[in-house]
Amino acid sequence: MRVARGRAVARDFARLRLEFGTEALSLDVADLELGARWVSIAFKDENHGAFSRVELTALAEGPEGPQGTSLSERAFGHGRFTWLGRLPAGTTSLRLTPMLGEPALSITEFTVTVRSRLALVGRAALRRPVLTAQALFWRSVGKRVRSQHRLARALVPPGLTAYDTWVRHFDTLSEADRARIEAEVAQWRDTALISVVMPVYNPEPKVLEEALRSVQEQLYPHWELCIADDASTDPAVPRVLARAAAADPRIRVERRPENGHIAAATNTALTLAHGAYVAFMDHDDVLPAHALYEVAKAIRREPDLDLIYSDEDKIDADGRRFEPHFKGDWNPELLYGQNYLNHLTVVRRSLIEAVGGLRPGFEGSQDHDLLLRLSDHLEPRRVRHLPVILYHWRTAIGSGTFSDAFLARAEAARLRALEELVARRGWPHRVERGPLGFNRLVRALPDPAPRVSVIIPTRDRAELLRVVLDGLLRGTDYPDIEVVVVDNGSTEPSALGLLEAAAADPRVRVLSRPGPFNFSALSNDGAAAASGPLLLFLNNDIEVREPGWLGEMASIAVEPAVGAVGAKLSYPDGTLQHGGVVLGVGGVAGHSHPDIGPDDPGYFGRMVIAQEVSAVTGACLMTRREVFESAGRFDAEHLAVAFNDIDLCLRVRRAGYSVIWTPHAALTHHESKSRGKEDTPEKRARFEAEVATMTERWGPELRNDPYYNPNLARAKALFRLW
Q1: Which residues on neighbouring strands pair with residue 439, listed in sequence order?
Q2: Which of 10, 233, 273, 404 is the most exposed place for a label (fewest CB within 10 A)?
Q3: What is the per-residue pLDDT for 194?
């Protein structure tokens, strides 16, 4: 490690190569007196990409022992990262923690440079003069924390502005990258043979040649390309294939006597495969040079993997890359609705053979059907998502892409594939066409339907409570509802009158719980007084929009593998308020797709399809009583107001349950109208303490939301690069 002050090197240690496994590594910097100083920390993560696979934390001694502060680094391309800011007072060490699931890591060129405050102010003034002026003002009136925050924001350099710029910085292999990969592979002794299977039917010869060449140029050499020519009528196609097979013994071609379409042709290609793993590739698409290397590296790390899939983008006739799809980790609920895995997908060959390969008759959705059948046998721990673009999907018109030719049939086949999954598993559910043609799984409620106890903490604001009670008791068609209103010391006559009137309904109970607002304690008390096996925690500023919302949530919550369910919440103007929670956004967590319009389907349709998420908001959260109790209920001691819902969901997931968000339970949320904003010193201090609790308790999880993507920006969960 090197520590410098400005341009002059103060101490020059031997350049340090940090090699460590899944455990954290701490660097002792106590004698460097870095606390309360502005520094830049730079390092190189040899895992090439747009995001660092380690969490950088500053540890400082506090009254209750070491306190950690996460340092959010900024990527600059080719594995280089920098953090610039003021270290906490009393900083004694810097800790590097691998992201969840990461194996041994290698960090090089780790440098800490002490920066002059005057020089930083000058740099900030050039970049963002308004923020810099605000920083100087707050400094002049003694508000140092506000000043430091604004100065740090002003120092952030302008971001990249286009996907092609991102590709150039973060997804273009240098000659050094290629040499490193080739040297690494040369040292491997146990290498997996990967069979790339390619059905071919009348592609444009030029794009077919490009597809073949992209396989031949793979930096990982242990592959075979198994091609089935599905009786192409263009005589140029068999000539191209024959030349390729003659030039490379790893390429094998079989010509089918008659056209059988994509499923039959793929199965023919599968009969040529000898590899333990099969990679699926269309006849006009392109693999980047490191695609099979990344797959093989994952298999070496985890030999038990059954399925590996990657991120992807599209490529046009001119070779321009666009519309990247940065995916989340394994998400069976999302897979019911759409084939979000798509490309590149690699599967253990024996597993494909066990389910009978692809099925003719499902053309256009044959891959989705295969994945749904495979999902009957997959264990989540044996599925790995690689957050790297490893496939370029050609969209040029006239290329003969199979999926472009059968859109109407594809939708019907997708629906039938899910219907057959439901039948195989013996579920009483039904399948219907959802928004944009995606599948929707409509679960059946048990008979009789279990009681749902709705717990509503409230104080005054009768106009809000009246709306939510009316929606529950008269606007919801669920057959067995109990409402537990937990009154946190209402004093307004209108509220007291409403509570008295509501209590006359046998379905409503009112608990008196005066005192300081503590959402966790109020909710816990309400749950203890409730009688139903299903608990729904609901804010008093929720408005019911349609009668079937509660049945949708309950039908999911009763499933044994499900631990919590959340709904789609929108503001009164129709913009989205809650589409699930993404960890790490804004520091701890934030809502997915905030403020998108009512007709916006979200990133690749995510906001119109039910899916697993890391957490859902406590403004509308349903769980089974047994799950709630076993998870330890809400944390009333450390998380009285903020993040108690996130904490509960994370404990539920740690216990092995899934958390599901559904867009088919849609409500309106008049957020924060009853409690107000964090606008007093006391509220801000409480909020900061709750942030500290979450970062200390869930630091690694907050760094790596499995249902987001580490390449995407985390200022807000907008599913964008910046």
Answers
A1: 433
A2: 233
A3: 98
Query: 297: closest CA among 191, 434, 415?
Result: 191
What digits encode the pLDDT tens for the residues 516-564?
A: 999 999 999 999 999 999 999 999 999 999 999 999 999 999 999 999 9
Q: Return all residues near 589 (Cβ < 8 A) that are at least 6 apart.
A: 581, 582, 583, 614, 615, 643, 646, 694, 702
Report which DSSP code applies to 287.
Answer: -
Tell me how far the alpha carbon of residue 538 is from its chain's centroid: 25
Residue 108 pLDDT exceeds 90: no
Task: Please spell the DSSP secondary structure of 389-432, one letter per residue.
Answer: EEEEEE--TTS--HHHH-HHHHHHHHHHHHHHHHHHTT---EEE
Residues 625-640: tens digit of each pLDDT: 999 999 999 999 999 9
Closest alpha carbon to 587 in 717, 718, 720: 717
Return d(Cα 274, Cα 224) in angstroms, integer. 8
Confidence of residue 3 (pLDDT cuts 50, 70, 90): very low
Nearest residue to 411 (alpha-carbon basis) of 359, 365, 372, 342: 365
d(CA 446, CA 449): 5
- Give 17 or 372, the one with higher predicted confidence: 372
The full set of domains in the chain, from first to last, is 9-115 (2.60.120.260), 199-416 (3.90.550.10), 452-703 (3.90.550.10)
Q: In this structure, are residues 372 and 395 in contact, taking their beta carbons and an 8 Å threshold?
A: no
Q: What is the DSSP letter of 15?
A: P
Mean pLDDT of 420-439: 95
